[in-house]
Design a protein that fits this description.
By secondary structure, this protein is α/β, with parallel strands linked by helices. It folds into 2 domains: about 90 residues, Zincin-like; about 110 residues, 2-Layer Sandwich (Zincin-like), CATH 3.30.2010.10. The protein has a 3-stranded mixed beta sheet with strand order 1-3-2, covered by helices on one side. The N terminus is likely disordered.
């Protein structure tokens, strides 16, 4: 029997390791992703959510199964994972029944939000909800169910300085929610550019973050190809480059 050595370090107090919920969530996602990929014999891009209405959804695109699972499945056993794989592969009736029973047994883990984060979509110059609806009908059939709203303008501390970078849009998958930077709610910002930013964030809802060479890819080849399908893509990119300094100063 091999000897096991345990080193005891006396006289030195070490700080306990901190539990990072985000890191743990990512670890569990990758573990489930690998297992579903093995069961389905295909690439899987998986995200755990806290959605209160949809417990399991999947889309197949470019040979990748994009799966969204409620976090209650983080502790699912092998039988449930096999049922998930069968359901994602073809909506097998028996698998659906098994999954519904599992959801009913774990319904207490569904977060009931008394108040959802209030978002404002109507701006002074651009109405994001109208833009979102038109893009959804034109490009997404419509399939994007995210909410959308203007982000809040951050408060500068001390002397105001010109930004070095700016994030014009963001997508949060667990809700899901699209936010647009309020610097774009200005008369000098053309409609087509706001539409491009919203379209870009809607793509994150549809394409997800597939694995590329073993790593998660936010803007992979499939995403970039879909992005260029926006009718005024080249014009939007050129406008952003020509007006970057003004956006940074806004």
């Amino acid at each position: 029997m091999a000897a096991v050595q345990i080193a005891l370090d006396f006289g030195q107090v070490r700080a306990p390791l901190r539990f990072d919920p985000a890191t743990e969530r990512l670890r569990v996602e990758r573990k489930l992703e690998r297992r579903l990929s093995e069961l389905m014999s295909t690439d899987v891009a998986l995200s755990l959510t806290d959605n209160a209405r949809t417990m399991l959804s999947a889309r197949h695109r470019d040979g990748i199964a994009h799966v969204r699972l409620h976090h209650m499945f983080a502790d699912a056993d092998e039988a449930i994972l096999r049922a998930v794989a069968r359901f994602v592969a073809g909506g097998h009736a028996a698998a659906s029944d098994k999954l519904q029973r599992f959801i009913d047994q774990h319904r207490e883990r569904i977060r009931r939000r008394a108040q959802r984060l209030c978002v404002r979509s109507r701006g002074h110059h651009h109405d994001l909800q109208i833009i979102f609806g038109e893009l959804n009908r034109t490009y997404f059939e419509p399939s994007v169910t995210a909410r959308i709203g203007w982000a809040r303008m951050g408060r500068a501390l001390g002397r105001r300085r010109k930004r070095r970078s700016i994030k014009l849009g963001s997508y949060r998958g667990r809700d899901p929610l699209i936010r647009v930077h309020p610097v774009l709610d200005a008369a000098w910002v053309p409609d087509f550019f706001v539409e491009y930013i919203v379209y870009h964030e809607m793509l994150h809802h549809v394409v997800g973050m597939p694995a590329l060479n073993g790593r998660r890819c936010l803007h992979g080849p499939a995403f970039r190809a879909r992005e260029r399908q926006f009718e005024r893509y080249a014009e939007a990119i050129a406008w952003e480059q020509a007006n970057l300094d003004r956006l940074l100063s806004g």
